[in-house]
Write a sequence for this structure.
């Protein structure tokens, strides 16, 4: 716990951090593969807290909301003052019987409400400011000023803080949407990922991928069964579950094994997969053809990115994949171009390109002629220059030459300059005094100056515009066949209607790393007398028991009773009467009898 009013993160900097685990690698592969990790969640979480967490204070105001704290260093990163970068993971152990919210809304949404109410919930939280929830600062209920936890009266407004005020503040911390990580796991191993906020969500150091990697490894180590997530993630203000599904075929959480859980309006997994495939495979040619009508900004953008891509962009998935890669790479350096115009197309359908050096020179000379004819320092748009030489070669060859022409000598002492228009993202060209670039053994140097390519901000703006025109159901453009547009709108709507995704960590119900000389038993209950609160619910999920190889039937019954009493509120007086289906004539104290039956 914090021992004074200063944040824990600052205190840690005075300590040697060699014994603090690395957030970026914890738990390690060795930790996950060790026999000690082979425990069901109810036991694994206790062992985890005992080994790694700081004990809650014995004088805690709310024993039904115990806050455990675990510190992690972030790789070898250091703060501005030279101290190590440290993050605090809070584990709030909530006693459900005394909680303000006994029933779980997330379980109801994902379809797990038939499970009995568990006795405890564990909240795993990383605050945005890096400090602990159970620090020594609380918020005054009267004026909102920060108070020391020991202060009962606010010095600013003289408001007297009651225990109820402090409890309200604690629950506000649990409900906050600003946490970098907030996951909750019930005592039976079913959980929900409520919040992941990376750099766009306020994180200064940790990315969303860093946080998800940590969460996934932690769930594996703790023996978590299933975790649900409601995907409402945003990327630059766009619905990321739609954008990522189009590019990768699954939502962002799918990178960690989260799969379709439930869709609105009775949508199924097949409906979701079909919608993703239909939308992502729409050819870009649908948006390009509109007869003799003037070209639109959408068509210019599609043509521009097709011309600068080294891989042929044929459909929506290709286009948005290329844009996201540009943003990911920072778009700070020129695209790498091979000497051969055909070499870079080896992965596309134009691999059997028949262009010759003469063909390229012919088109370039035609472009040089147009630029020389322009008076003064006027710029020529990409569309106008392409249209002026449209008869000189195929559309693919024209696009290639437009991409390559920048920096080439058009006349003695004059070279082609190119720039990106800030409003539309299209390219413009003109002649400027200068000399051709110096050739090296690797080809021309500085073929694409920085000014000839759109900035990261420009690509991001283009991404938003293309998203609205091609993916957003309400704003998808009309310049395509009605049937195709209806298909695009319907598919995008279905993808957006699918928000619930689930990861099943143990689909076969057994732990992957059994302890030596141990037996794993999956225990189900068959109630002879149902309590009133049971109300016809389905039986609880089976509980995994790990027993020694020489365990007796009596040992099995005792462990089963203890497990169900510990996990579920309604089973606190649960008693095991008999082992259903086990052969008769067997003494309960006979050792090793479990090995005679089916085991894992």
């Amino acid at each position: 716990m914090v021992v004074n009013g200063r944040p824990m993160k600052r205190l840690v900097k005075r300590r040697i951090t060699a014994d603090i685990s690395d957030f970026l690698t914890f738990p390690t592969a060795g930790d996950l593969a060790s026999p000690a990790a082979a425990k069901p969640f109810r036991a694994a979480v206790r062992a985890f807290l005992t080994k790694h967490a700081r004990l809650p204070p014995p004088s805690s105001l709310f024993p039904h909301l115990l806050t455990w704290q675990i510190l992690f260093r972030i790789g070898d990163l250091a703060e501005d003052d030279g101290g190590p970068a440290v993050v605090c993971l809070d584990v709030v152990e909530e006693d459900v019987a005394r909680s303000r919210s006994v029933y779980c809304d997330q379980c109801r949404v994902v379809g797990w409400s038939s499970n009995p109410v568990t006795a405890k919930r564990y909240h795993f939280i990383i605050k945005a400011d890096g400090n602990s929830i159970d620090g020594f600062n609380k918020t005054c209920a009267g004026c909102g000023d920060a108070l020391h936890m020991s202060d009962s009266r606010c010095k600013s407004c003289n408001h007297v803080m009651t225990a109820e005020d402090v409890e309200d503040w604690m629950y506000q911390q649990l409900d906050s949407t600003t946490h970098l990580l907030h996951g909750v796991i019930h005592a039976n191993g079913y959980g929900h990922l409520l919040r992941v906020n990376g750099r766009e969500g306020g994180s200064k150091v940790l990315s969303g991928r860093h946080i998800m990697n940590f969460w996934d490894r932690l769930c594996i180590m703790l023996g978590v069964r299933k975790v649900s997530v409601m995907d409402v993630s945003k990327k630059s203000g766009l619905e990321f579950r739609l954008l990522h599904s189009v590019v990768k075929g699954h939502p962002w959480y799918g990178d960690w094994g989260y799969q379709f859980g439930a869709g609105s309006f009775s949508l199924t997994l097949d409906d979701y997969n079909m919608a993703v495939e239909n939308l992502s495979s729409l050819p870009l040619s649908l948006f390009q053809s509109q007869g003799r009508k003037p070209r639109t900004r959408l068509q210019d953008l599609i043509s521009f990115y097709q011309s600068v891509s080294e891989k042929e962009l044929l459909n929506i998935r290709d286009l948005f994949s290329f844009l996201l890669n540009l943003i990911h790479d920072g778009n700070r350096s020129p695209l790498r171009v091979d000497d051969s115009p055909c070499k870079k197309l080896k992965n596309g359908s134009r691999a059997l390109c028949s262009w010759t050096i003469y063909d390229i020179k012919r088109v370039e000379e035609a472009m040089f002629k147009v630029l020389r004819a322009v008076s003064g320092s006027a710029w020529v748009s990409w569309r106008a220059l392409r249209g002026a030489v449209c008869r000189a070669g195929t559309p693919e060859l024209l696009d290639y030459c437009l991409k390559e022409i920048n920096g080439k000598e058009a006349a003695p002492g004059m070279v082609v300059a190119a720039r990106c228009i800030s409003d539309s993202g299209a390219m413009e060209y003109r002649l400027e005094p200068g000399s051709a670039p110096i050739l090296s053994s690797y080809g021309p140097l500085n073929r694409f100056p920085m000014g000839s390519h759109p900035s990261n901000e420009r690509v991001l703006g283009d991404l938003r515009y293309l998203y609205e025109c091609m993916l957003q159901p309400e704003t998808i453009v009309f310049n395509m066949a009605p049937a195709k547009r209806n298909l695009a709108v319907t598919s995008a709507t279905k993808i957006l209607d699918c928000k619930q995704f689930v990861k099943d960590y143990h689909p076969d119900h057994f732990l992957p790393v059994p302890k030596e000389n141990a037996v794993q038993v999956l225990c189900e209950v068959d109630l002879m007398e149902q309590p009133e609160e049971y109300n016809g619910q389905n039986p609880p999920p089976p509980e995994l028991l790990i027993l020694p190889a020489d365990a007796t039937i009596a040992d099995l019954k005792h462990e089963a009773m203890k497990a169900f009493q510990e996990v579920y509120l309604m089973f606190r007086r649960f008693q095991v009467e008999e082992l259903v289906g086990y052969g008769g004539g067997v003494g309960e104290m006979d050792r090793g009898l479990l090995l005679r039956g089916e085991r894992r």
